[in-house]
Hints:
The protein is mainly alpha-helical. Helix content is 64%, strand content 11%.
Amino acid sequence: GNCYKVRLALAQLDARGAFRPSAPGWTYDRGVIGTLVAPDLLDADISRLDENTRALLSDAAIFSYPFDADLLLALRERDPIDLAGALDEACSAYCIVRREGPRGPEFSWSRSATRTAFSERLADPERRDLHFRALSHLESRWRSGVVVAEERLADHAMGCGEPARARSHLRRGASDALSRLAFERAHALLGHALRIGEEALSAKIQF
């Protein structure tokens, strides 16, 4: 039901010679049509985007959860771009979806395949730096009294190679959950912290 994707698919097929004039109308080559796969459409989608939009979405690929404009600005602090324009284009191309969140508009990936395609464009040092920037920004929010899910803090701490920092956030969250008698929440957070500890220990042993 996505007219934009239908037009994009037809344009891709036409460029490959899938359609030929034939009285009284047009005919098509089934063999050419069979060569079109989803990654082709995704690559075509990405190539049509403005350079700033592609840069913004590559940064945003570190987020597995809804993110807001302030968080994106924190990632682009050293290299500012036209954030509003890039977000509008990304939403128009259905790479991300805009929804209203507790702090204002939030954005999330329309499909996991789109996020993966942009994530693959990030080099490991760049990815770690982005996670560090996101973690620093979210921690500053938490210190100012804004509620931030501990799993998000832990995810970014692990992304920038700081498992001890990740476990600290999870244990703090578990302690807070216990104080509110939210036992299932505390159990989940402590279990997450334990898995991180086991993975870190295993990596040290293997090294």
